[in-house]
Amino acid sequence: MRKNFGAKPFLFPQPVMIIGTYDENGKANAMNAAWGGIVGADEIMIDLSSHKTTDNLLRSRAFTVSVGDVEHMAACDYVGLVSANKEENKMEKAGFTTVKSEFVNAPVINELPLTLECELTDVIGGSKFLGKIVNVSIDEKVLGDDGELSLEKFEPITYDTVHFGYYRLGGKVGNAFKDGNALK
């Protein structure tokens, strides 16, 4: 038996995306974005209402998307709760430090190990920001022996849109482009 819930944003896992931008004075800002994801090999879309971040993004036409992790869960939640319009020291209070991306005019948050560096390409319907991913930077501490991102070392968190919780992702359960061959 199935129960119907109507139109709800129940797609899992939902990444915890921390959007980084610079304000008009070059000060780094970040916010937690609940809605968005990869929409192509080098594209990402985030749906944002009006924020300091959206003002910054529209002016600079650049942003970063860092993925929240277990270690920085509280800081990631904090930057979603507090507006840079009201808290001047938001980044410092979150414990986030930044460096300027080498590829776009946006900050990379040092504490979050995975960052997509993006150029704004379009705004759809006034709230959906489409970006071209021009670089992905990854802290070497979460790279495996093969030099690639290791989900055994990186602990991203996912957002539960039903109960408003954050969860860590579990362990590996299979091999993509391989295990399905057993059903051929």
TrEMBL record:
Keywords linked to the UniProt accession: Flavoprotein
Keyword Flavoprotein applies: yes
Organism domain of life: Bacteria
Domain Flavin reductase like: 10-148
InterPro entries membership: Flavin_Rdtase-like_dom, Flavoredoxin, Split_barrel_FMN-bd
Keyword Protein transport: no
Required co-factors: FMN
Protein name: Flavin reductase family protein
